[in-house]
Specification:
The complex is a heterodimer of chains A (about 110) and B (about 110). With about 110 residues, chain A is mostly beta strands. Helices cover about 0% and strands about 55% of the residues of chain A. The chains are: A mainly beta (about 110), B mainly beta (about 110).
Amino acid sequence: QKEVEQNSGPLSVPEGAIASLNCTYSDRGSQSFFWYRQYSGKSPELIMSIYSNGDKEDGRFTAQLNKASQYVSLLIRDSQPSDSATYLCAVNGNQFYFGTGTSLTVIP
Amino acid sequence: GAGVSQTPSNKVTEKGKYVELRCDPISGHTALYWYRQSLGQGPEFLIYFQGTGAADDSGLPNDRFFAVRPEGSVSTLKIQRTERGDSAVYLCASSWTGGAYGYTFGSGTRLTVV
């Protein structure tokens, strides 16, 4: 079992819609959870971090954490074409593990 | 510096050769990490430095890979007897602490072994 699992997609949503990205992790001792955005040919960029159960909102982005279910999600409201990228879930446990990423395409 | 700097940005080498990849972290960041990323995959952990010492090198795939950070700032990833399977983007990241607040990545070195 991989430490962090994501649906690789691709996920396509129309412009203005909500994009929902999901991630599960295996290490129950993990304390810190992150979402990175990676444009094609570029390095990952940190966009959200969450440390406690519940929701954390930052502009159009909302991260959700459920430690009991070992589940992290990212919602992108009012999706824009510029949001088209691969979104990587990362979990800080014994090591800093990344998922394989979900490819998101926002269709104008 | 203002960001994490990696050099070279691209490196093409012949199978069997030795390569060095350099990472200059954000000034003051004590933690430094090396990852490699293959096409369509997430970053794969290689090694983590806290200061000058390797706090965790469990991700190094074999003894052809070695990394140093002699003065607690710049780090060099060294790969001996390169193989075609070593071709990937090698990413360096740094942070103030042990990653509890996330990392800042450099732009990576694309290594191609031919």
